[in-house]
């Protein structure tokens, strides 16, 4: 005769295994939909439209951790730079278990700048600030860089010889890189 407790436990284990498999399939589907939506959002015409749909998506799939929360906070500012203290104030809900909140924000920002081409550092009131670079802005910079590279190629006398930049090529390159003349 079989033990009724073991029979019940085996049934629960089978049901649990089925539910875990369903959860994994749902997670995979949700992840695929999220990636597709984020890609489609990047193709929208204006930053306002992009932000509208990013906010809708973030309501359904909220940022998971501090990095995601910081990226979201920067993305909502339409390219306006934020100081680390301003960023901290926007993500304070994700910092409850951090003993040194500003150190956590600074460390996360440094890591994000290295890995995320949509975040850059700028100066604001003489301090380092961070801003979100929209897809449109990145595309304009890319076009400017390509134009500057073409001007530099045309200005070069032969392959391997560094070209002497004329003022228009130098100006294009500085614009594309966001630098001022020294």
SSE pattern, N- to C-terminal: HHHHHEEHH
Strand sequence of the main sheet, in spatial order? 1-2
Model regions low in confidence, pLDDT < 50 over at least 5 residues? none
Q: Percent helix among the residues?
A: 55-70%
Query: Tally of extended strands?
Result: 2
> Total domains, how many?
3
Written account of the structure:
With 182 residues, the protein is mainly alpha-helical. The chain is 64% helix and 7% strand. It contains seven helices and two strands; from the N terminus they run αααααββαα. Strands 1-2 form a two-stranded antiparallel sheet. A hairpin with a 2-residue loop joins β1 (119-124) and β2 (127-132). α1 packs antiparallel against α2 (47-60) and α6 runs antiparallel to α7. The termini are far apart. The model has no long low-confidence stretch (mean pLDDT 81).
Offer a quick outline of the entry.
The chain has 182 residues and is mainly alpha-helical.
Features:
182 residues, mainly alpha, 3 domains, two-stranded antiparallel sheet, 2 strands, 64% helix, elongated
Topology:
Layout: H1 4-42, H2 47-60, H3 66-75, H4 84-90, H5 101-115, E1 119-124, E2 127-132, H6 135-155, H7 167-177
Antiparallel strand pairs: 1-2
Helix pairs in contact: 1-2, 3-5, 4-5, 6-7
């Amino acid at each position: 005769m079989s033990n009724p407790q073991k029979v019940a436990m085996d049934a629960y284990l089978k049901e649990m295994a089925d539910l875990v498999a369903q959860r994994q399939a749902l997670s995979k589907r949700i992840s695929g939909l999220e990636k597709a939506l984020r890609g489609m959002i990047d193709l929208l015409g204006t930053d306002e439209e992009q932000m509208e749909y990013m906010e809708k998506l973030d309501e359904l799939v909220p940022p998971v951790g501090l990095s995601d929360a910081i990226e979201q906070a920067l993305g909502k500012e339409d390219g306006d730079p934020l100081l680390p203290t301003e960023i901290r104030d926007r993500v304070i809900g994700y910092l409850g278990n951090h003993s040194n909140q500003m150190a956590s924000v600074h460390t996360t920002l440094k890591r994000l700048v290295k890995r995320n081409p949509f975040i850059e550092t700028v100066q604001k009131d003489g301090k380092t600030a961070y801003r979100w670079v929209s897809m449109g802005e990145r595309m304009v910079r890319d076009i400017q860089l390509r134009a500057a590279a073409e001007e530099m190629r045309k200005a070069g006398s032969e392959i391997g010889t560094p070209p002497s930049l004329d003022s228009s090529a130098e100006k294009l390159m500085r614009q594309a890189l966001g630098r001022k003349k020294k």
